[in-house]
Amino acid sequence: MTSELESQQHCRLTESAMKMTDRNPFRWIPPFGHWEEEFENYKKFDEYPRLTEEDRENLTLSNFEFKWFLVYFHRMGGRLIFAAFFGPFIYFWLKGYFSAALKKRMILVAILMALQVSLLFCKF
């Protein structure tokens, strides 16, 4: 969890937050050897024209790769948090370890997490 927070803070401090061009939620492997193609796809994406001229000039392939990995590790951290919650959640629910009050709270947390995950598919 600490590395997840560090990744978010680094993105904010360096203003390197960037959307990934591939919204496939099951993309697990970075595009090793295909960085030029991924960079060209990013240039076609709706976020690229909104960059300032200076930012576009400073966005080199190596800089793009670094920012891509920040976004990638942020996604992987989110998936880890998702698995760390829902794995035990399902196990404890099925074993009957939750009281009625705790079930309501856990359902609320699960709904909030599901809503956040659903934002992956929204185009802003």
Automatic annotation (TrEMBL):
Cofactor: heme b
A GO CC annotation given for this chain: mitochondrial inner membrane
The UniProt record lists the keyword Metal-binding: yes
InterPro entries reported in the protein's UniProt record: COX15/CtaA_fam, HemeA_Synthase_type2
Domain of life of the source: Eukaryota
Membrane topology classification: Multi-pass membrane protein
Principal location class: membrane
GO BP terms: heme A biosynthetic process
Pathway: Porphyrin-containing compound metabolism; heme A biosynthesis; heme A from heme O: step 1/1
Catalytic activity: Fe(II)-heme o + 2 A + H2O = Fe(II)-heme a + 2 AH2
Subcellular localization(s) per the UniProt record: Membrane
GO molecular function list: heme A synthase activity; metal ion binding; oxidoreductase activity, acting on NAD(P)H, heme protein as acceptor
The name this protein goes by in its record: Uncharacterized protein
Native source organism of the sequence: Panagrolaimus superbus
